[in-house]
Amino acid sequence: MTMSEIPLLRILMVEDSENDAFLLLHEIQRSGYSVDCERVETAEAMKKALEEESWDVIISDYNLPHFDAPQALAVMKEQGYDLPFIIVSGTTSEENAVAALKAGAHDFVIKGRLARLVPAIQREIQDTITRREHRQRSRELEAIASISMILRKAQTLDEMLSRLLNQTLELIKAEIGSIWLYDASTDQVNLVAQRGWDAEDLITSFRRGQGIPGLVIKSGQTFISPEIFTDPRLTKEYQGNIPKGIGGACIPLHSDENIVGVIFINVKLPREISDEEVRVLTALAEIGGNTVRRMLLLEQTLKQVQRLRSLRTIDVAISSSLDLRISLKIVLEEAITQLNIDAASILLINPQTKRLEFSEGLGFRTSNIKLTSLGRGEGFAGQVALEKKIVYIKDLNKPDQPFERAELLKNEEFITYFGTPLISKGKVQGVLEIFNRAPLRPDIEWLNFFDALSWQTAIAVENALLFEDLQQSNFEIEAAYNATIEGWSRALDLRDKETEGHSMRVTEMTMKLARLMGMNEDLLIDVKRGSLLHDIGKMGVPDNILLKPGSLTKQEWHIMRQHPQYAYELLEPIAYLKQALDIPYCHHEKWDGSGYPRGLKGEKIPLAARIFAVVDVWDSLTNDRPYRQAWSHTKTLEYIRENSGSHFDPQVVDAFLHHLPELLKK
Q1: Predicted confidence band at 3 (pLDDT cuts at 50, 70, 90)?
Q2: What does the alpha-carbon distance between residue 251 and residue 265 come to, in Å, rounded to a whole number?
Q3: Phi (first) and psi of residue 264, to 5 degrees
Q4: What is the mean pLDDT of residues 565-591?
Q5: 154-300 adopts what CATH topology?
Q6: Across residues 650-665, what is the average pLDDT?
Q7: Which fold has domain 321-463?
């Protein structure tokens, strides 16, 4: 047996006699052990020895001058150790020996029978090793069960992978590790989680069969190396920039018959990954592989649901909003979120210039994209519009495919480009563009969603163009209606020379007062039309009555008072003017019910008519008539105050008086 093969036994001896200690060591060495021993005589010395060194066994005399075996046993337990504790003594009684064994000593050897000492040590050390292995295995099983529970609680794949790596490193007391997943669509294994590496020097992707992760994916076998840098099985290509002094184990993540990735755990020399640790890592890899597969399926399902919801969101936006900008912004927001890209823009064809021009964009660092203007066939977007097909550029920086807007977007640092035509009813309306600052690896679902986005965007553009055309037609019709109404109003003023300009003045003042009283702007449109046409019914009054210079007879007044009814009969059949009837029909009604044509009272009179009534009287009294001079403002205000509550609505009168300075401003 060589010196290197002699087993080393580390003994902490609690003994005050050097001679007795020598005899004990001699007996142990005679049995073939190399001994590393420290002798202590006090509790303090024993505590220090336990803290500073690791021991295989404690041998203690029963009685020392200031210390004894039961006290030494108590010190060991207080310090948290569970070492083989053997009492060797020749002076203690049998009762003390039994008491010591009950207190926790593992054996009791009489100094006169030292032949029993070595077998006792061997037996206790083996029992200790067995207990430690059992406890270690139990801890490993508990840890694996705990990790399995933790992984099941993860909500996302990234969260699960992070937890798996953290818990694995903690379990085997390592500080460096990574997890890689295999993408069958690209035949690459990609880094998805790492701890302990310098991120700048770390390679993040290998093809299957390259690098240690790629080798394990291809072979399906665990790879273990004491030091990767000097491993003769690996060329530099496969070492993956791992520095000297680092070893590790790379274990495949299995799911059924497939390998979904690897977990790569690294340690610094002189430590090596042990067989027990490989066994634990393999168990965790089995759990991790199944969990990864489950999470991938879950995330794929959730992504499909999210994309369906996204398309629904766009549908709702298109159907509920008539503003194209709002619809396009929602399209871009969903594109960036669901396609996981950096930026997107929409170019629309200008109907006048026939050029592609910027409409909306999102995710750009600068506003330069807004300067985009391309002809059909010009640049990538122009090519999309001309050929009506998707254009995909993997690397915008390649000289063989120059990007026509490279200077315009030089600060954006884009690498990947996608452009798809916006086609509606066979006509290209524009182009949806996607930009990314890293390479994209689109799968079929990604491309399908991108295609769906382009169709929905085209629908939004088509709807907006149709609405704009319809809106323009409505504007033109409305302008024609308004011009007609104003023409009727001027015609009435021209017919009744006494009131020339009256309609425009009362319309302006009524609008101001109604607005100051908080009337909705939508209602003010009908207030304006009603004010302009308030005397439209006088078209039914004969000239001999309307233009009579003298007083009217009772019969003539009866005919004159019919003009609100004539207004109703004239305007009511016209749907466009039906909501404007309140003033022409009711402006001669009075608050106390004494007005005409229906004798309405109080709030049964429409508010617009109550407001107009005050303004109408003000304008009539403060302007000259052939039969009288204009009244002063003071006299007119006094008249309006006196008739508040009888002729006029008191609240309207209060508002009129309060806001009169504003109403008189031109």
Answers
A1: very low
A2: 8
A3: -120, 110
A4: 88
A5: Beta-Lactamase (3.30.450)
A6: 92
A7: Beta-Lactamase (3.30.450)
Sheet with 8-14, edge to edge strand ranges: 34-40, 8-14, 57-60, 85-89, 107-110
What CATH architecture applies to the domain 3-133? 3-Layer(aba) Sandwich (3.40)
Indicate the average pLDDT of the chain. 82
User: In the structure encoding, which two tokens stand for residue 359, read together?
Assistant: 């409409």
| Reported pTM | 0.43
Q: What are the residue ranges of CATH 1.10.3210.10 in the chain?
A: 496-664
| 604, two tokens | 């049964």
Q: What residues does CATH 3.30.450.40 cover in the chain?
A: 154-300, 321-463
Pairing of strands 416-424, 246-255: unpaired
Torsion sign (Cα): 338, 339, 344, 346? negative
Give span(s): CATH 3.40.50.2300, the chain: 3-133
Phi-psi label, residue 197: left if phi above 0, alpha if psi -120 to 50, beta otherwise: beta
452 sits in which H/E element: helix 444-495
393-430 pLDDT, tens digit per residue, is 888 888 777 888 888 888 899 999 999 999 888 888 89
Name every residue whose Cβ is closer than 8 Å to that of residue 550 and which is 6 or more positions away in sequence. Answer: none
Q: Is residue 310's pLDDT more than 70?
A: no
C-beta separation of 581 from 534 below 8 A? no
Q: Which CATH superfamily is domain 496-664 in?
A: Hypothetical protein af1432 (1.10.3210.10)
3-state secondary structure of 566: helix
Evaluated on CA atoms 100, 105, 109, 111, the torsion sign reads negative
Question: Does 460 have pLDDT greater than 80?
Answer: no
